[in-house]
Write a structure and sequence with these properties.
The complex is a heterodimer of chains A (327) and B (302). Chain A has eleven helices and twelve strands. Chain A has 327 residues and is α/β, with parallel strands linked by helices. Chain A has a single domain, classed as Rossmann fold (3-Layer(aba) Sandwich). In chain A, a hairpin with a 2-residue loop joins strand 11 (310-313) and strand 12 (316-318). Chain B has 302 residues and is an all-alpha fold. Helix content of chain B is 71%, strand content 2%. Chain B has helices at residues 3-11, 16-29, 31-48, 50-53, 92-128, 130-145, 148-159, 163-189, 193-200, 205-213, 218-242, 253-260, 269-296; strands spanning 72-74, 79-81. Mean pLDDT of chain B is 87; it is low at 1-13. The chains are: A alpha/beta (327), B mainly alpha (302). Chain A binds chain B through residues 60, 63, 65, 89-90, 92-93, 95-97, 99-101, 104-110, 118-119, 122-123, 129, 147, 150-152, 154-155, 165, 168-169, 172, and chain B through 1, 6, 9-10, 12, 14, 192-194, 196-204, 207, 211-212, 215-216, 298-299.
Chain lengths: 327, 302
Amino acid sequence: MTNEMLELKDIKKYYDAPGFFLGKKTNKLRALDGINLSISVGQKIGIVGESGCGKSTLSKVIMRLIEPTSGMIKLFGEDITSVTPQVLNKIRKNIQIIFQDPFSSLNPRMRIGEIISEPLYIHERVFPDQIKSQVLEIMTAVGLTEEFFDRYPHQLSGGQRQRVGIARALILKPKIIIADEPVSALDVSIQAQLLNLLNKLHEDYNLTLIFISHDISVVQHTCDKIAVMYLGQIIEMGDANSLIQNPKHPYTEALISAVPQINFSEELNKDKIVLHGDVPTAFSPPSGCRFHTRCIYVKERCKKDVPVLAEINRAHYLACHYPLTVI
Amino acid sequence: MNTSVNNSLSAKATNLKGQIWTLIESITRYKPAFFGAIILGSLLFIAIFAPLVSPFDPNLQFPTEARVGPFTYLEGSDRFVLLGTDQVGRDQLSRIIYASRVTLLVSFFAVIISCLIGTLVGLLAGYYRGWFDIIAMRWVDISLAFPFELLALSIVAVTGPSLTIVIIILSLRIWVVYARVVRGSTLSIREKDYINGAKAIGAGELRILVRYVLPNVLTPVLVVSTLYIGRMILIESSLSFLGIGVPATTPTWGGILGDGRAYIDTAWWIAFFPGLAIMITVLSVNLLGDWLRDYFDPKIDI
């Protein structure tokens, strides 16, 4: 396919953890265990999962801030897994990232104007004063006024800082933006503003958006495709609306059911599916289906056979032996 | 945000001339630092122009007028000794003025040299980790565990005492402190998202180190520097006391202090005044250092 923008093939990231004996490296933390994903131009894909499922690791692997243990990353059909640092820096113009925590993602010793113009300086050797108009334009686009230009990050609120982070990512006019939980550290009212901003920027700049979140409602608001991750694997993936309305995987169903809703009738609250226990350790994932320890529909087969991600409907992928049927 | 905050923000200008001006403006507003700067400035002036400032030859001995108290007129040599005379009748004030030359030179140079080396090593060790970190930090451990006087003695035994050797010895002692402090800060800074952000926008290693890590480890460096300038003066005096400091003929504050110790019960002024000089210097360096640390911290507006 020609409009494939970014393709991940069997991405694995294992971390070595020292065992009980000195220097003996036996345990492997499987942060990512075989991720296949393809993203086409202009798409908005959401990646959802509990904390510790490997969402952030995935975003850093795509950015090549972390080297994958194995697998292949293709950008515009070109393999970028083993390029030299010089080439990598050129490629990075095309992919930018927005970080989760706006309080640690901005250098406290740089002014806002410097932070936003830094990418341009690095790639084109222009100084902040020469491109002030360009910086101000992008600041206006993300809803920051000129008065912020000479301020320091600590003088800004969380929402304003996150806008600075978005502006820094946008100024290079990247093709892909990875948003790693961009709103989870913010107030709900600011969250909505920023999500709308991201949607607007997506249209204005024809961005491809990879949106990572633990909150499936946020992703639904933003994305047109959703991938659900559990313990380093994608377990369900499909068109946003059909996946939300008609989830096939029990885990997806539980995530959707966990979205808080304001209702005062007891009956509706009873229907919530509450998952018990924590995510099993990624050092030794459960046998068979990784979700079987917490699945409420678990059957014998789930403990032995590993379900494979397969297309069940058009563009709807699932890794479950017993897909849910419409109730 | 109110207007006064805005004004002081815009006051921190970006061009060099404006920067120097805001620096001066800030220090005049912050009184303790201003006081420290004036004291240090005068000390520097006195040290540089010692021959013009000092009333007498610091090495001229009058054994008959030994251990005369402060504020005395001596008829035999026609001298008014403001701070008294020492055990061989030399003028204390002149001795202290000349001693400021060596003392300030040694302590400032030792701090600057060890600051540069220690910060560089700490930065590289903390940022890159790996074998360099292991070797550098074990070296630091060894340096800290090794008895300093023994190290100083063995170096001087080979080279003989001189000003340069004293500066080198002191730097050898102190750079490890910088290395350790800077490494610790670097370890925490390198995990911050803005370092990942810098990599994401394509910043090179040098750029990340100089623009993203270094400014954020500056605070502990300044604190250690102001602490250790005072320490240096004292360590230098202990070297002089052991006879392995600068040559005995050159007066230093620590040296005079050490000599005066023997006469503390009969002639307190011999030890007291160089001690006072050390105290005033250390105090003003600390006042200045406090302000400098706050000035470079964008979170504090002074």
